[in-house]
Amino acid sequence: MSSEPKRGIWRVFLILLFIMGLSFLSIILMGRFQSARAVAQEGYQYLEIFNQALDVIEKKYVKEIDAKTLIYGAIQGMLYKLDPHSIHLPPDYAKDLQVDLTGEFGGLGIEVGIKGGYITIISPIEDTPAWKAGLKAGDMIFKIDGQSTEGMSLLDGVHKMRGKKGTPVTLTIVREGWKEPRNFTLVRDIIKIKSVKQAEVFDGKYGYIRLITFNENTGKDLREAMKKLMSQTQGKLAGLILDIRNNPGGPLEQALEASDLFLSEGTIVSIKGRSPEDNQAFYAHKENTYSGFPIIVMLNSGSASASEIVAAALKDSGRAVILGDKSYGKGSVQSLYTLKDGSMIKLTTAYYYTPSGKSIQAEGIRPDIEVEELSPEQIALLKEERQKEEALRIKEQDLPGYTPHQEVEPKSKPKSEEVKSQEPKSFKEQVLNDYQLRRAVELIKAWEIFQAQYKKASSQ
Fold it and tell me: Which among 305, 307, 327, 332 is annotated as catalytic?
């Protein structure tokens, strides 16, 4: 009999507790609603201003202009304010991007970005008109066919450099160490890019792979290259040099595949954004992993994006030693969103972090062994030669009564730079002409020697 009142008290207590919980929840939800409402009201306020500006431009601008041009311009301006990698791609440009990812397109063969308000070369792609003409990472494209690139969007710059095979385009280049810009007239070509430029065995047991870009076939191409090296060494590869200098990067998925070839466990890369759904970690798999030999990864300032993901994954895991110069430092992830009219937004949605938890954004990867592009002897000799040439060269301004440049209107354009192929004829010549590669070859050989000596000493 006495249990009935107790049940009634507990029932009342639970009801009161439920009502208190609902009240507390409603207060939280109301706060969030009010906050969201305030944000929405602020957004509507600025949308009204935008519509007002659009109306004024359409009615009062000196020339008639269509709404599409204005809206596209507004979207592009909005994304330009975010960061250099967030862009709007009109339908034609969006198609260009899809073609790029297949590894075949028409153009010059350069990866570009914005630096100091100008279009700047991140990396020339090997065996392309830009590479053969001698363009380098860090070169600023001052003009395209005489039009200044100052303030030019990346999309417009790329579109101007694209074109039909066989048609010329003149780039005015500013390079550190030059007193004046120089003109390079390049002939557009169909750019067919195989990720693996070179894969060969040297000294009978060491492998060298030159990976020049990332596209949708990179993982497959790299695996085929490794099969070739393993076959030629009867499965006893003593060491690998993975050369990703001047590799501008590409899809994240292909960077994961490339890294997974040499890692059997652990994190390859993690990405973190503002939204929880953008936070992910990607891991290596034990299956089909190439192991049992040391790796040297070669980097330079033209190594960006996917290249840096691979280098950082192998470095942080202890799988490879990094040799060369500091890399470019692109540590952001872009996602593609297709709009109703077929245009796209390429938006920075996250930053990626190396297995050790570090971001390389605007910092790059510092190599374990820093090696300049030229040997100290080559640098000293080059400096000495330039000083001699400068001392012997008589300039116009050295002559008495010369006419200052300002008083004379140029009558002809400067001659374009002579096109010279940078491709050596053989791997031995590559080693002789490439100081960084020579150091990598020496190191991979020394690695085996030191290991043998260590084992010998341990057995005594």
Answer: 305
